[in-house]
Amino acid sequence: MSAAENGLKAAVAGATGYVGGELLRLLSDHPQIAEVRGFSRSAAGRPWAEVHTNFLNLPDTPIFDAFDAKEVGHWADVVFLALPHGESQLLIEAIEEGSPQLIIDTAADFRLNNVDLTERVYGPHAKHELLGTFANGLADIEAGALTGARRIAIPGCFATATMLSLWPLAPVLGADSHPVCWAATGSSGSGATPKATTHHPFRAHNFYGYSLAGHRHEAELEEKLIEWCGPSAPSCSLLTHSAPMIRGIHATLRVRLADPVDDPMELLCAAYNGRPFVRVLDQPPRLASVVGTNHAHLHAVARDGGREVLVLTVIDNLIKGAAGQAVQAMNLARGFVETAGLEHTGMSPC
Predict the structure, then answer these.
(1) For strand 296-303 and strand 278-280, is the pairing parallel, antiparallel, or unpaired?
(2) How deeply is 294 buried, as exposed, middle or buried, from its count of CB atoms within 10 A (0-12, 13-18, 19+)?
(3) Strand 180-185 relative to strand 237-242, pairing
(4) Where are the beta strands (DSSP E) in the chain?
(5) Distance (Å, whole) CA 87 – CA 144
(6) Are both 312 and 165 inside the same structural domain?
(7) Helix, strand, coil proportions of the chain in percent (round to 5)?
(8) Cβ contact 159:221 at 8 Å
(9) Sequence-separated (6 or more) residues with CB below 8 Å from residue 240
(10) Burial class (CB in 10 A: 0-12, 13-18, 19+), 193
């Protein structure tokens, strides 16, 4: 499906999910990808278009391949794992038998480095020895640190939006800053398998909070803040909400600072200068502007004489929060143009 005759062979495992479908779409048009195969246990032998109807717009639609971890690892140069949490750790050994050049996991199996923290948040882990061996796929911040990576773990969608908000403020955060991020997401964040809380009559005109006693993505924030701020790192509370929309995350971060900041917008502009997918706006961002894209839009406001700072961030949860960030990470790891395959605009209206 791609014109890159001498490019890489890319496999998407778990290709019937929402993230898997976005990976198929993005990789099919990538200039450095020669061939894409979608692997699935449930849809083997069926056309992609039967599951992801946007592929009906192509003259020919590929067929899902039966998922076999060893076959995937032997065939592919790059393996994207878009599997439910817990499966990657059980399959990684079989996949690596084939020595693919790069494995990118979009699930939570290898996002954390600390074993105790991992098992406290997610339960028992089957591959302790591999924790800490996956590069963090926060592509807009890690950037060149991903060059040559063989294993990459993509951060969670809420974690991505929150860390993009926190990173510019890291130099001025203190132990007493206690950031709080209030964030809302669309129904696609719950995955393709129907649930009572994603049923359309329940979700369409509803708005509610969940995991307010402690969201699992807070563990990612904890590790990153310690990395960025050292022993004086604050903790960050993540207050998540389900919104009556399909795609996107709108996050509002609030922090208190011991020393006032005159213009927090200067911190945002300095942190993301030259980063192709992060746009700092002079007004609060609108979610519809990033839906369907790999872009993040940010804006900051100072209150109380600069002692309180708000950072507003919007992203598409399926692209910047998952599939698009995975492709961006691949580009950085393999030395491709960072924006390759991701330069499309969004839709308006959407």
Answers:
(1) parallel
(2) buried
(3) parallel
(4) 8-13, 33-40, 65-66, 78-81, 102-105, 135-136, 151-153, 180-185, 208-210, 237-242, 249-256, 278-280, 296-303, 308-315
(5) 29
(6) yes
(7) 35, 20, 45
(8) yes
(9) 158, 183, 184, 185, 209, 210, 211, 212, 215
(10) exposed
278 and 324 fall within a common domain: no
- CA 4 to CA 289: how far, in whole Å? 30
Same domain membership, residue 305 and residue 167: yes
Peptide bond into 201 cis (omega under 30): no
Is residue 102 one of the residues assigned to a domain?
yes
pLDDT score recorded for residue 4 = 62
Q: Which domain holds residue 79?
A: 8-155+320-334
Phi, psi (rounded to 5 degrees) for 162? -70, -40
Q: What is the Cα–Cα distance from 258 to 342, expressed in whole angstroms? A: 40
User: How many alpha carbons lie under 13 Å from residue 107 in its C-beta half-sphere?
Assistant: 23
Name the residue type at position 56: L
- Strands 102-105 and 237-242, sheet pairing: unpaired
Contact by Cβ (8 Å): 67, 11: no
Residue 264's CATH number: 3.30.360.10
Q: Is 123 left (phi over 0), alpha (psi -120 to 50) or beta?
A: left
Beta bridge partners, 39, equal: 13, 65
Task: Say whether both 280 and 233 belong to one domain.
Answer: yes
pLDDT at 190: 75
249 with 148, same domain: the answer is no
The verdict on residue 349 lying in a domain is no
- Enumerate residue ranges in the chain where pLDDT < 70: 1-5, 350
Q: Coil, strand or helix: which one is 325? A: helix
Query: What is the DSSP pairing of strand 33-40 with strand 65-66?
Result: parallel
* Lookup: tokens for 330: 């691949």
Both 120 and 178 in a single domain? no
* Joined tokens for residue 197: 């809380």
229 is catalytic: no
Residue 181, in any domain of the structure: yes
